[in-house]
Amino acid sequence: MTEPTPAPMAMGPRTNTLAIISLIGAFVLPLAGIICGHIALGQIKRTGEGGRGLALAGTILGYVFTAFWLLYIVFFIVLAGIAASTGSYYNGY
Fold first, then answer.
1. For the CA atoms of 56, 59, 65, 69, what is the dihedral angle to 10 degrees?
2. b vs e for 65-74, b when ≥16 Cβ sit within 10 Å of the residue's Cβ?
3. Rounded Cα–Cα distance for residues 29 and 32 (Å)
4. Distance CA 63, CA 71 (A)
5. pLDDT tens digits, the chain, 93 residues: what are they?
6. DSSP result, 6-53
7. pTM, rounded to two decimals
8. Rounded Cα gap, residues 25 and 53, in angstroms
9. How distant, in Å, are the alpha carbons of 3, 54, 68 from that of 73?
């Protein structure tokens, strides 16, 4: 007696490539995550591909990391301004 062959598995919709790039790009270059995420969301809506969650995550993380970088830069500009305005009387001796 032979074993029955398993039924073929149904494949889901193809995952959008830009959605994957969006998620990876959000960690490497946040602006790439934002741009690719928005493009991927438009393509997914138009074509019905999978990967909407990946595109959303890449877009959101891109915005969050961009905000962190901007706050980081502003913090050091303010810190440099405070340090310059306090003036140091140290003359090297």
1. -160
2. bbeeeeeeee
3. 5
4. 12
5. 677 877 777 787 899 999 999 999 999 999 999 999 999 999 999 999 999 999 999 999 999 999 999 999 999 999 988 888 876 666 555
6. PPPPPP-PPBPHHHHHHHHHHHH-HHHHHHHHHHHHHHHHHH--B-HH
7. 0.76
8. 15
9. 65, 28, 9
